[in-house]
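Peptidase S8/S53 domain-containing protein
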Amino acid sequence: MFEGEKIQVEGPKYIKKKSELALPSYASGSSVSTALAAGLGSLCLFLARMANESDRQAERFCERSTMLAVFREMQVSPKDKVIAPSQLFANFGRIFYGTDPRPVGLDKFEFSYFEEKIGAGLTTRRARSRERATGATGGTV
């Protein structure tokens, strides 16, 4: 779900040669997409804690099905599985200082927003494997 090809990265300047300092560096691979997913997931968990008064509701974001629903909310389309965080974060408002009213867009991280989306289109790996093995009619393929 996360892009992992030719992602521009920065590292310590002392590693590069002087001739390479002006050139951008790129990284690719599953380790890049995993780091992006972990960072974005962490941000979503933080926002869920801010948005939900109940600790129980905030903890539900740690469940696989809830986080998948959050990530699916960021997909451009059901067919294109690549995540575009702007899909979910586009309407976030001003900076939150703790005494101001809630930031605009934080309501998207209330558990009730995702409650009906959890399970919609989500199936377990085992169920998907069973569907592939038996076909749509339930008979053996």
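thats it. Residues 137-141 have pLDDT under 50 and may be disordered. Residues 7-134 form one domain. bye
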